[in-house]
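[step 3/7] inverse_fold.run input=structure_tokens len=347
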């Protein structure tokens, strides 16, 4: 609806560029509105630092307001790339023009003006998931619903486009929440395209780490390959972070400490006592399976999605008959990663 109001979807570019300045296929320009730098300066009050709502190594994100045909202002997120991030700019615009899914952030347009590379996205009013996890304000059911939404988004990336897409840096900071606290995947600057849909999936070798949080998947450590199971591995870490108290990150622990600290002892106090035992067992089983050392032993993200939906159903059924008392978890879940800690930086 937002795109229709602005009249920006599938519109012709309005910025004049010579053929020597063009860096994108005509199809991308046809699918994605091209803004002038003047438009975006006006939308951000000349990139006022007070408008900054996020930042990374290679970019800053501003909250902007756009007008169309005299209509009211519409909030947007405007990502302005530094020179070192131009490769990520090219990657994001290439991928996001292909994606049409409610669990992936929508690209509204771009600006490719000499030394300015800027992308314009739909504005996600509730920010990123990491803030909400840090503040401890999410109920257990909402956390589970967010995980299901993320799994659906990844499932679409892996199987729903013309070519498989591997996100590669999935984490709370690359999951954004809209007005209704529904999640959307963002941060596609280092994502990788795989084989065409319905063709035999091939391993993709990369000569440098693409950038991630926490542990890279073990298959990457061993031979530098990227497959859908990379995303499944990082999704396993997301499941762990969603239930862990405060800013506890497993990457801060040694292997010995991992073995000595059951997950149940790290549960966020906000949701402790709110998780039905059967739901928890299914949830934690999926988490452990996603973190398997061998890629072939990990499930597909589609299988994870189905199991998490079942876990949510179990929680809802349990709540009907247990509305006035807390749940007790008697299990002791130990996670042994079988990998060495590996420091990485966003590329």
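[step 3/7] decode complete -> sequence:
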């Amino acid at each position: 609806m937002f795109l229709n109001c602005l009249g920006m979807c599938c519109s012709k570019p309005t910025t004049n560029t010579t053929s020597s300045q063009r860096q994108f296929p005509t199809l991308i320009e046809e699918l994605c509105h091209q803004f002038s730098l003047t438009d975006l300066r006006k939308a951000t009050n000349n990139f006022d630092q007070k408008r900054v709502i996020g930042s990374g190594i290679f970019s800053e994100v501003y909250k902007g307001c756009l007008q169309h045909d005299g209509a009211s202002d519409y909030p947007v997120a405007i990502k302005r790339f530094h020179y070192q991030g131009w490769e990520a700019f090219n990657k994001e615009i290439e991928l996001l023009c292909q994606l049409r899914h409610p669990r992936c952030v929508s690209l509204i347009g771009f600006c490719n003006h000499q030394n300015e590379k800027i992308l314009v996205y739909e504005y996600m009013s509730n920010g990123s998931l990491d803030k909400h996890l840090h503040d401890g304000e999410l109920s257990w059911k909402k956390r589970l619903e967010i995980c299901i939404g993320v799994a659906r988004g990844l499932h679409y990336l892996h199987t729903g486009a013309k070519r498989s897409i591997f996100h590669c840096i999935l984490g709370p900071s690359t999951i954004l929440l809209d007005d209704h606290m529904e999640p959307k995947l963002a941060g596609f600057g280092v994502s990788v395209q795989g084989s065409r849909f319905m063709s035999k999936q091939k391993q993709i070798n990369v000569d440098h780490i693409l950038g991630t949080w926490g542990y890279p998947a073990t298959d990457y450590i061993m031979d530098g390959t990227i497959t859908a199971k990379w995303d499944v591995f990082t999704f396993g870490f997301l499941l762990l972070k969603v239930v862990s108290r405060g800013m506890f990150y497993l990457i801060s622990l040694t292997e010995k400490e991992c073995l000595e600290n059951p997950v149940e002892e790290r549960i966020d106090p906000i949701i402790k006592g709110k998780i039905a035992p059967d739901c928890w067992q299914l949830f934690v089983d999926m988490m452990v399976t996603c973190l398997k050392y061998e890629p072939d032993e990990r499930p597909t993200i589609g299988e994870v999605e189905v199991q998490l939906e079942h876990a949510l159903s179990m929680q809802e059924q349990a709540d009907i008959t247990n509305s006035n008392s807390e749940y007790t978890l008697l299990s002791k879940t130990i996670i042994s990663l079988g990998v060495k800690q590996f420091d990485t930086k966003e590329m």
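[step 4/7] annotate
The chain has eleven helices and twelve strands.
Residues 301-321 form the longest helix (21 residues).
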